[in-house]
Fold this protein.
Amino acid sequence: MRLLSRTLAVGVAAVLALTSCSSSTETSTSSSGKGLEKTTLRVGTIPVPDSAPLQVAIDRGFFKEEGLDIQTEVVAGGAVATQKLLGGSLDISLGAYVGTFLAQDKGVGKFKYIADSYGAAPGAFVIMVKKDSPIKSVADLKGKTIAVNVLNSVSQLTAEVQMKVAGVTATPNQFVEKPFPDMPAALESGQVDAAAMTEPVITVESKAGGRIIVDEMTGPTENLPIAGWFTTEAIANKYPKAIAAFQRALGKAQALVAKDRKIVEETLPKYTKIDAATAAVISLGSYPTSLSETRLQRVADLMKEYGYIKNDLDVKSMILPPPSAS
Protein backbone atom coordinates (compact mmCIF):
# COMPACT_ATOMS: atom_id res chain seq x y z
CA MET A 1 0.00 0.00 0.00
CA ARG A 2 1.96 -0.92 0.02
CA LEU A 3 3.10 -0.44 2.49
CA LEU A 4 5.33 2.59 5.73
CA SER A 5 7.95 5.94 4.43
CA ARG A 6 3.79 3.07 2.72
CA THR A 7 5.98 7.25 3.08
CA LEU A 8 4.44 4.32 1.98
CA ALA A 9 2.84 5.70 1.15
CA VAL A 10 0.63 7.54 2.78
CA GLY A 11 -1.56 10.41 1.89
CA VAL A 12 -4.40 7.91 2.18
CA ALA A 13 -5.61 9.54 5.39
CA ALA A 14 -7.80 11.79 3.26
CA VAL A 15 -10.17 8.94 2.47
CA LEU A 16 -9.62 6.48 5.22
CA ALA A 17 -10.53 7.04 8.84
CA LEU A 18 -9.31 5.48 12.04
CA THR A 19 -10.87 5.82 15.46
CA SER A 20 -8.16 7.43 17.52
CA CYS A 21 -7.55 8.66 21.01
CA SER A 22 -5.14 11.49 21.75
CA SER A 23 -4.63 11.07 25.45
CA SER A 24 -1.03 11.61 26.46
CA THR A 25 -1.42 10.35 29.99
CA GLU A 26 1.48 8.30 31.28
CA THR A 27 0.31 5.96 34.00
CA SER A 28 2.24 4.42 36.81
CA THR A 29 2.97 0.75 36.44
CA SER A 30 3.63 -0.01 40.08
CA SER A 31 0.45 -2.06 40.30
CA SER A 32 0.85 -3.85 36.97
CA GLY A 33 3.36 -6.32 38.29
CA LYS A 34 5.24 -6.13 35.01
CA GLY A 35 7.71 -3.40 35.89
CA LEU A 36 6.99 -1.30 32.80
CA GLU A 37 8.38 2.23 32.78
CA LYS A 38 5.00 3.43 31.47
CA THR A 39 1.77 1.69 30.57
CA THR A 40 0.34 4.16 28.07
CA LEU A 41 1.97 4.22 24.66
CA ARG A 42 0.94 6.78 22.06
CA VAL A 43 1.11 5.13 18.66
CA GLY A 44 0.90 6.81 15.26
CA THR A 45 -0.99 4.76 12.72
CA ILE A 46 -2.22 5.07 9.15
CA PRO A 47 -5.59 3.62 8.07
CA VAL A 48 -4.19 1.28 5.43
CA PRO A 49 -3.72 -2.52 5.35
CA ASP A 50 -0.21 -2.12 6.78
CA SER A 51 -1.70 -1.29 10.19
CA ALA A 52 -3.92 -4.36 10.45
CA PRO A 53 -1.73 -6.23 12.98
CA LEU A 54 -1.90 -3.29 15.40
CA GLN A 55 -5.71 -3.26 15.26
CA VAL A 56 -5.82 -7.02 15.71
CA ALA A 57 -3.58 -6.79 18.77
CA ILE A 58 -5.85 -4.10 20.24
CA ASP A 59 -9.06 -6.00 19.48
CA ARG A 60 -7.79 -9.27 20.91
CA GLY A 61 -6.40 -7.75 24.09
CA PHE A 62 -2.78 -8.64 23.43
CA PHE A 63 -1.57 -5.24 24.62
CA LYS A 64 -3.69 -5.40 27.77
CA GLU A 65 -2.16 -8.77 28.55
CA GLU A 66 1.21 -7.02 28.55
CA GLY A 67 -0.05 -4.24 30.82
CA LEU A 68 -0.23 -1.68 28.01
CA ASP A 69 -2.86 0.86 27.05
CA ILE A 70 -2.44 1.82 23.38
CA GLN A 71 -3.60 5.31 22.44
CA THR A 72 -3.68 5.59 18.64
CA GLU A 73 -3.40 8.74 16.55
CA VAL A 74 -3.80 8.93 12.78
CA VAL A 75 -0.76 10.48 11.08
CA ALA A 76 -0.73 11.70 7.50
CA GLY A 77 2.54 9.96 6.72
CA GLY A 78 6.06 9.12 7.77
CA ALA A 79 7.31 12.71 7.78
CA VAL A 80 4.60 13.79 10.22
CA ALA A 81 5.20 10.73 12.38
CA THR A 82 8.92 11.47 12.51
CA GLN A 83 8.34 15.00 13.76
CA LYS A 84 5.84 13.82 16.37
CA LEU A 85 8.27 11.18 17.62
CA LEU A 86 11.07 13.71 17.87
CA GLY A 87 8.73 16.20 19.55
CA GLY A 88 7.58 13.68 22.13
CA SER A 89 3.88 13.55 21.24
CA LEU A 90 4.20 9.96 19.96
CA ASP A 91 6.12 7.00 21.36
CA ILE A 92 5.88 4.68 18.33
CA SER A 93 4.58 5.01 14.78
CA LEU A 94 4.07 3.14 11.57
CA GLY A 95 6.54 4.35 8.99
CA ALA A 96 7.71 3.37 5.52
CA TYR A 97 11.33 2.30 5.49
CA VAL A 98 12.22 4.65 2.63
CA GLY A 99 11.10 7.73 4.56
CA THR A 100 12.77 6.76 7.82
CA PHE A 101 16.03 5.86 6.10
CA LEU A 102 15.95 9.25 4.37
CA ALA A 103 15.52 10.99 7.73
CA GLN A 104 18.33 8.95 9.29
CA ASP A 105 20.66 9.70 6.38
CA LYS A 106 19.95 13.44 6.62
CA GLY A 107 20.66 13.47 10.36
CA VAL A 108 17.10 14.42 11.31
CA GLY A 109 17.26 11.99 14.20
CA LYS A 110 18.29 8.51 15.31
CA PHE A 111 15.60 5.91 14.85
CA LYS A 112 14.95 2.31 15.81
CA TYR A 113 12.63 -0.13 14.06
CA ILE A 114 11.00 -2.36 16.64
CA ALA A 115 8.76 -4.52 14.43
CA ASP A 116 8.10 -5.21 10.77
CA SER A 117 4.59 -4.62 9.49
CA TYR A 118 4.14 -4.88 5.74
CA GLY A 119 5.97 -6.17 2.71
CA ALA A 120 5.47 -6.28 -1.04
CA ALA A 121 3.43 -8.99 -2.70
CA PRO A 122 2.12 -9.50 -6.24
CA GLY A 123 -0.55 -7.02 -7.28
CA ALA A 124 -0.33 -4.80 -4.19
CA PHE A 125 1.75 -1.97 -5.73
CA VAL A 126 1.28 -1.21 -9.41
CA ILE A 127 1.50 1.51 -12.03
CA MET A 128 -1.83 2.12 -13.76
CA VAL A 129 -3.09 4.13 -16.73
CA LYS A 130 -6.62 4.95 -17.79
CA LYS A 131 -8.57 2.69 -20.11
CA ASP A 132 -7.86 4.54 -23.37
CA SER A 133 -4.28 5.58 -22.61
CA PRO A 134 -1.74 5.10 -25.43
CA ILE A 135 0.75 3.89 -22.81
CA LYS A 136 1.09 0.12 -23.20
CA SER A 137 4.29 -0.70 -21.31
CA VAL A 138 6.82 0.70 -18.86
CA ALA A 139 9.01 1.79 -21.76
CA ASP A 140 6.22 4.15 -22.83
CA LEU A 141 6.58 6.07 -19.55
CA LYS A 142 9.57 8.01 -20.88
CA GLY A 143 8.80 11.70 -20.39
CA LYS A 144 5.32 10.98 -19.00
CA THR A 145 3.94 12.38 -15.76
CA ILE A 146 3.54 9.78 -13.02
CA ALA A 147 1.55 10.37 -9.83
CA VAL A 148 3.08 9.16 -6.57
CA ASN A 149 1.56 9.63 -3.13
CA VAL A 150 4.71 11.25 -1.75
CA LEU A 151 7.80 12.37 -3.63
CA ASN A 152 10.93 10.34 -2.86
CA SER A 153 8.75 7.55 -1.48
CA VAL A 154 8.78 3.80 -2.00
CA SER A 155 6.27 4.31 -4.83
CA GLN A 156 8.64 6.60 -6.69
CA LEU A 157 11.72 4.50 -5.97
CA THR A 158 10.15 1.29 -7.27
CA ALA A 159 8.76 3.12 -10.32
CA GLU A 160 12.29 4.28 -11.14
CA VAL A 161 13.61 0.74 -10.72
CA GLN A 162 11.01 -0.71 -13.10
CA MET A 163 11.69 2.02 -15.65
CA LYS A 164 15.40 1.27 -15.54
CA VAL A 165 14.68 -2.43 -16.09
CA ALA A 166 12.70 -1.39 -19.19
CA GLY A 167 15.59 0.73 -20.44
CA VAL A 168 14.08 4.09 -19.51
CA THR A 169 15.77 6.68 -17.31
CA ALA A 170 13.34 8.40 -14.98
CA THR A 171 13.65 12.14 -14.36
CA PRO A 172 12.64 13.81 -11.08
CA ASN A 173 10.32 16.32 -12.75
CA GLN A 174 8.09 13.63 -14.23
CA PHE A 175 6.83 12.59 -10.80
CA VAL A 176 3.84 14.49 -9.41
CA GLU A 177 2.64 14.28 -5.83
CA LYS A 178 -0.98 13.19 -5.53
CA PRO A 179 -2.76 11.59 -2.55
CA PHE A 180 -3.82 8.04 -3.39
CA PRO A 181 -7.56 8.88 -3.30
CA ASP A 182 -7.07 11.62 -5.92
CA MET A 183 -5.21 9.44 -8.40
CA PRO A 184 -8.16 7.92 -10.31
CA ALA A 185 -9.63 11.37 -11.01
CA ALA A 186 -6.19 12.71 -11.97
CA LEU A 187 -5.82 9.89 -14.49
CA GLU A 188 -9.26 10.28 -15.98
CA SER A 189 -8.89 14.07 -16.33
CA GLY A 190 -5.45 13.85 -17.90
CA GLN A 191 -3.66 15.64 -15.07
CA VAL A 192 -1.19 12.76 -15.06
CA ASP A 193 -0.37 10.05 -17.57
CA ALA A 194 0.12 7.23 -15.07
CA ALA A 195 -0.15 6.61 -11.34
CA ALA A 196 1.73 4.43 -8.86
CA MET A 197 -1.14 2.96 -6.86
CA THR A 198 -1.79 0.69 -3.93
CA GLU A 199 -5.00 -0.73 -2.50
CA PRO A 200 -7.84 0.06 -2.29
CA VAL A 201 -7.24 2.61 -5.07
CA ILE A 202 -6.09 -0.13 -7.46
CA THR A 203 -9.51 -1.75 -7.17
CA VAL A 204 -11.26 1.61 -7.64
CA GLU A 205 -9.37 2.36 -10.85
CA SER A 206 -9.77 -1.19 -12.12
CA LYS A 207 -13.54 -0.86 -11.85
CA ALA A 208 -13.28 2.26 -14.03
CA GLY A 209 -11.45 0.27 -16.69
CA GLY A 210 -7.94 1.33 -15.74
CA ARG A 211 -5.07 -0.89 -16.86
CA ILE A 212 -2.05 -2.12 -14.94
CA ILE A 213 1.12 -1.72 -17.00
CA VAL A 214 3.55 -3.07 -14.42
CA ASP A 215 3.69 -4.58 -10.98
CA GLU A 216 6.18 -2.38 -9.15
CA MET A 217 7.28 -5.22 -6.90
CA THR A 218 8.90 -7.56 -9.41
CA GLY A 219 12.49 -8.30 -10.33
CA PRO A 220 14.86 -6.17 -8.21
CA THR A 221 11.99 -5.11 -5.94
CA GLU A 222 10.29 -8.47 -5.43
CA ASN A 223 9.25 -8.98 -1.78
CA LEU A 224 10.63 -5.55 -0.88
CA PRO A 225 9.96 -4.46 2.72
CA ILE A 226 7.50 -1.57 2.83
CA ALA A 227 6.76 -0.37 6.36
CA GLY A 228 7.33 -1.15 10.00
CA TRP A 229 6.90 0.24 13.51
CA PHE A 230 9.61 2.60 14.63
CA THR A 231 10.59 4.90 17.47
CA THR A 232 13.52 7.11 18.36
CA GLU A 233 16.69 5.80 19.92
CA ALA A 234 16.01 8.03 22.93
CA ILE A 235 12.54 6.57 23.54
CA ALA A 236 13.81 3.01 23.09
CA ASN A 237 16.51 3.66 25.69
CA LYS A 238 14.13 5.37 28.12
CA TYR A 239 11.34 2.77 28.02
CA PRO A 240 12.96 -0.57 27.12
CA LYS A 241 10.48 -2.74 29.03
CA ALA A 242 7.45 -0.96 27.61
CA ILE A 243 8.83 -1.23 24.09
CA ALA A 244 9.54 -4.92 24.63
CA ALA A 245 5.97 -5.44 25.81
CA PHE A 246 4.72 -3.71 22.65
CA GLN A 247 6.90 -6.00 20.54
CA ARG A 248 5.55 -9.13 22.21
CA ALA A 249 1.91 -8.11 21.85
CA LEU A 250 2.25 -6.98 18.25
CA GLY A 251 4.22 -10.11 17.40
CA LYS A 252 1.28 -12.28 18.40
CA ALA A 253 -1.03 -10.39 16.07
CA GLN A 254 1.51 -10.33 13.25
CA ALA A 255 1.79 -14.11 13.42
CA LEU A 256 -1.99 -14.45 13.13
CA VAL A 257 -2.46 -12.18 10.11
CA ALA A 258 0.59 -13.64 8.38
CA LYS A 259 -1.12 -17.00 8.04
CA ASP A 260 -4.80 -16.03 7.83
CA ARG A 261 -5.98 -13.41 5.33
CA LYS A 262 -9.51 -13.67 6.67
CA ILE A 263 -8.42 -11.94 9.87
CA VAL A 264 -7.19 -8.97 7.84
CA GLU A 265 -10.41 -8.88 5.81
CA GLU A 266 -12.48 -8.81 9.00
CA THR A 267 -10.29 -6.12 10.56
CA LEU A 268 -9.94 -3.60 7.73
CA PRO A 269 -13.54 -2.24 7.93
CA LYS A 270 -13.01 -1.50 11.63
CA TYR A 271 -10.38 1.19 11.13
CA THR A 272 -10.54 2.14 7.44
CA LYS A 273 -13.24 2.99 4.91
CA ILE A 274 -12.52 -0.26 3.10
CA ASP A 275 -15.80 -2.15 3.27
CA ALA A 276 -16.09 -5.90 3.73
CA ALA A 277 -16.77 -6.58 0.05
CA THR A 278 -13.69 -4.66 -1.06
CA ALA A 279 -11.53 -6.16 1.69
CA ALA A 280 -12.36 -9.61 0.35
CA VAL A 281 -10.97 -8.91 -3.13
CA ILE A 282 -8.13 -6.40 -2.82
CA SER A 283 -4.53 -7.47 -3.28
CA LEU A 284 -2.71 -7.48 0.03
CA GLY A 285 0.98 -7.31 0.74
CA SER A 286 2.74 -9.66 3.13
CA TYR A 287 2.96 -9.49 6.91
CA PRO A 288 6.52 -10.52 7.88
CA THR A 289 6.88 -11.99 11.35
CA SER A 290 10.40 -10.76 12.06
CA LEU A 291 12.67 -7.84 11.30
CA SER A 292 15.31 -9.02 8.86
CA GLU A 293 18.51 -7.05 8.54
CA THR A 294 19.12 -8.62 5.13
CA ARG A 295 15.67 -7.64 3.83
CA LEU A 296 15.84 -4.08 5.12
CA GLN A 297 19.34 -3.60 3.79
CA ARG A 298 17.93 -4.18 0.29
CA VAL A 299 15.86 -1.02 0.69
CA ALA A 300 18.82 1.06 1.84
CA ASP A 301 21.02 -0.27 -0.94
CA LEU A 302 18.43 0.56 -3.61
CA MET A 303 18.08 4.04 -2.17
CA LYS A 304 21.83 4.57 -2.38
CA GLU A 305 21.93 3.22 -5.94
CA TYR A 306 19.20 5.62 -7.08
CA GLY A 307 20.55 8.64 -5.23
CA TYR A 308 17.95 8.86 -2.48
CA ILE A 309 20.59 8.76 0.24
CA LYS A 310 24.19 9.92 0.08
CA ASN A 311 25.78 7.55 2.56
CA ASP A 312 26.02 3.80 2.99
CA LEU A 313 23.38 3.03 5.60
CA ASP A 314 23.91 0.12 7.96
CA VAL A 315 20.36 -0.82 8.88
CA LYS A 316 21.53 -3.21 11.60
CA SER A 317 22.08 -0.19 13.84
CA MET A 318 18.43 0.79 13.33
CA ILE A 319 16.89 -2.55 14.36
CA LEU A 320 15.89 -3.21 17.95
CA PRO A 321 16.14 -6.97 18.58
CA PRO A 322 12.96 -8.73 19.71
CA PRO A 323 12.61 -9.40 23.45
CA SER A 324 12.77 -12.79 25.01
CA ALA A 325 9.41 -14.30 25.94
CA SER A 326 7.99 -12.92 29.18
User: Anything to note?
Assistant: Confidence is low (pLDDT under 50) at residues 1-33. The chain has two domains: 11-119+224-318, 125-221.
